[in-house]
Prior knowledge:
The model is unreliable at 1-22 and 490-526 (pLDDT under 50). Helix 4 crosses helix 9, helix 10 runs parallel beside helix 11 and helix 16 crosses helix 17 (349-357). The chain is globular, with a radius of gyration of 23 Å. The strands form two sheets. It has a ten-stranded mixed β-sheet with strand order 7-6-5-4-3-2-1-10-11-12. It has helices at 4-16, 19-22, 27-32, 35-44, 54-63, 69-74, 76-88, 93-100, 104-120, 163-175, 194-203, 219-228, 242-249, 254-265, 286-295, 322-338, 349-357, 374-384, 420-426, 428-433, 441-445, 456-463, 477-484; strands spanning 133-137, 180-184, 207-212, 230-236, 271-277, 300-304, 342-345, 363-367, 370-373, 393-396, 401-403, 413-414. A hairpin with a 2-residue loop joins strand 8 and strand 9. The chain is of the alpha/beta class.
Amino acid sequence: MESLASVHDRQYLQVNAGQAVWGHPHVIERILDRFLTQFFLKELTERKSDGHCPLEKIFEAYKKRPLSMGLRIKYFLPILFIDLLRRLACAQRNFIVQEVFGYPPRTRALVNTARSIGTYGLSRPQIFFSPLMVVWNFTQACNLKCKHCYQNAGKTLPDELTLREQLEVVEQLVDLDGAILALSGGEPLISPNLLPVVRKAHEGGMYVTIATNGTLLTKEMAKKLVDHGVEYVEISLDSVNPEKHNSFRGVDCWARVVEGIKSAVAEEKLKVGIATTITRMNIGELEDLIDLAKELGVKCFNAFNFIPTGRGKEIIEQDISPEEREEMLQILWRHLQEEKIEIMSTAPQLGRACLMYSVPQGVFATGHAGQGAGEGARTIAKYVGGCGAGRCYCAIEPNGIVTPCVYIPLPMGDLRKEKLIDIWQGSELCRVLRNRGYLAHHCGFCDYRDYCGGCRARAYGYFGDLTEADPGCIHNREKWERLKGGQHEDPFDPAWFRSGVGVSAHRLGGTPGVGDGRVISSGKRA
C-alpha cells in the first residue's frame, strides 16, 4: 500500500509542478549569489573604529526623509539597491522602515545575514558568521523534577558563571550582531542575575525571550520581565489533564502553571507561548492543547520534539513513532494555515510537511521560530530552515560551556577560556553540522534536505552520531523499526549509507547514544 506521505508528495508535485523544491531560483537568490554582491556585502559589514559597519549607517539613512544632499549622494546606490530588493519582495517602504530597520533585532539579523553571505557566499543551508540565536541554560537550579529534562536540572552548580561573567557574555553577543537571546534553565526565574542580564541584552538591541515552567510567573514577575526588556515568554504545559501534567513534571503544579500563563497574557507588551513536549502521553490531546492555548489568549504554540538525552533517556518508551509524528505535523500544518495561533516546532520535519501539504501560497515554516506565506517564505526556508544546531544557533551551559544545541551534550568550547566567535568559527562539530552532505541514510539524499535535514539531537541521542538519520521521520521508518527491535546496524557497513556520505568518516566521540553501542573517539564500537 502506498504510504500517506508518498500520496501527499505526489499530489503536491502535481499541483505545484515541483516548483517549491526544484523550481527556478527566486530573483533575489540570483542577485545574492553573484560574486559582486557578496564582495560588497563583505565590505559593508566590516566594523569600523566606531564599532559600527557601513551597512548599519545605510539602514539609518534609508529611514530618514528627507536626506541632506550630501547623504543622498553618498548613499544613492545602496538605497537604490535596497529599494530594488524591497520591490522584488513586494514589501511596502513603510513596513521596511518601521518593522525592519526600525526594530533593532531584525536589523541585527539582517547585518549578520549580510555578513554571512559576504563571507561564505549563499549556501544551502546558510552558514552564519556568528550565531543568530543563542539559547542560554542560565542556571541548573529548578523547582520541578521533569521526567524528560535534558539538563538534569535540580540544584545550582558550584561553577556557574558570575554576574560579571554573564554580562561579558552578553557584550560578546551584542558585538557579534546576535539577534535573539533565549534564556532557559533549569528555571531561569530562580536566578537573581536574570533581570540585569535581560536588561543589558535588550539595551544592546537583542530580542530577549524566557522559557519557564510558569510556576514562579506571578503578575509582579511578568511586569518585571517586561520592564527589563523581555518580549516573549514561553511556558511549559504538557497536558490539559492536571494529573498527567503533574506526573510528567514531578510536582503538583498544573494550576500554578495556568495562573502563570494568565499573568503573562495580562501584560499587553509581552507575547506569550505555550511549549509542549510531544510524547505518547499527550499526542492524543494535541488538538485540545492548542484549543486551550487559544482560550487562554496565548499567541503561539510550540510543539517540542522528544529527545533521548538527560533524564529523557529514562523514558525513551514515551517517544512517538514516525506515523504519530506525521500525524502531529499534519495537525500543526493545518493550524498553521488557519493562522488563528502561531505554530512553531523543534521538529525540523515541519518544514518538509509544509512543502508536502501546502498550496503554493500557503503558510510555511521557515525555521524553528519563523513562518510566512507564499514564494518568499519558501525561499527563506530553503536557506534557514531545518535543524539550526551549530549553523545559526548554539547553546550556553550555566558554567559557560558552549554546545551546538541544548539537546546535544558535546562541548565546543569554554567561554571562560575563549571568545564565542573563536569557538563558533573553529569548532569541528559545527563544520560537520553545517554540511548536510555528510548526513546518512535518507536524511542525506532527501528531496527536502534543504528545508529539514532531520533533528541532529535525535540522531545523536539514539545513535551517538551527529550525521545519522533522524529515526522519527516517516522516510526513516526502517531505522525506527530496527531500534524497536533492538537491532543496531553497523555504521561501517557500506550497505547502510549511501556512497559519498561516509557515516564512519564523520563519527565523533562523546556521550553514547541510547540506541547504539558505546562510541569512542577512534570511531569504533566498544
